# Entry
Amino acid sequence: MSAPNTETVSKREVAEHFSSISNVYNERNYQLAGKRAKYPDIAIRHKYFLEMLEGTSGRVLEVGCGSGQMQLDLARRGYEMYGLDIATGMVQATRKLLHDKLPNYKPRLLVGDIEALSFPNDFFDIVLAAGVIEYLRSDEKSFREFSRVLKPGGMIILSVRNKLNLSRPITTGRDLVQSTPVLGSGINAANKALRAMLSLPPNGGIPGKRHIPAQLKRALRAAGLEPTDHSFYHFAVFPRMLERKYGEFCSKWGQKLETFRRSPLGYLANQYIIQAKKR
# Structure
């Protein structure tokens, strides 16, 4: 099980952050994917999720429905879709997208907490959670809930940040040290003190925990979910300083490495997708 990350923000902060960007999220991450000087990681993740869903059907719960692109694509493919997000703004954005693109469609959307799902046992054939559990302080409650609402043999697909991103050894080493209770707390405290002393601005976005793939698999098994497939993505192989200055160049060459996403070279990637089935 991944250790709690003391920098993980509260659920309220997560909800407020994603609501604040809900009106631009779809445009930035889907409509303009590959057209900006930013790695199109969310669009790539979306593509890989759809690939893992090939040959499936049924009732789907998407936790963290974001701006609604997955809801739209799967509704068009005939899935019975349900969507949930902690951010009210994202649910509203999803509702608007579905109304604009599928005017006669009746969406099933709600604002909710993935650690306390308001659905009966054995209700869904598939659960999707893209970029969600990294904002929770631990995984156990959400995994138990996913397992509870899935039918026996049902599938879950989720994505996390890869703690063993070998292309960034300094970051990887720091993350591993931070996993230890005593040293991790000391490093976080020292980092905050240094940033305050130097009057450094906060990092962009919101922080979230990272996962070690092998530990993630063990955590899923403990919840009755047996891993069946996986893929890495978002090959961030250049130093962050170069990415900030030469974003288009770094993104272009990083995307060429996506061909290695199912090989041992996947550990050079920043993100990880795993598929599992309920036993």
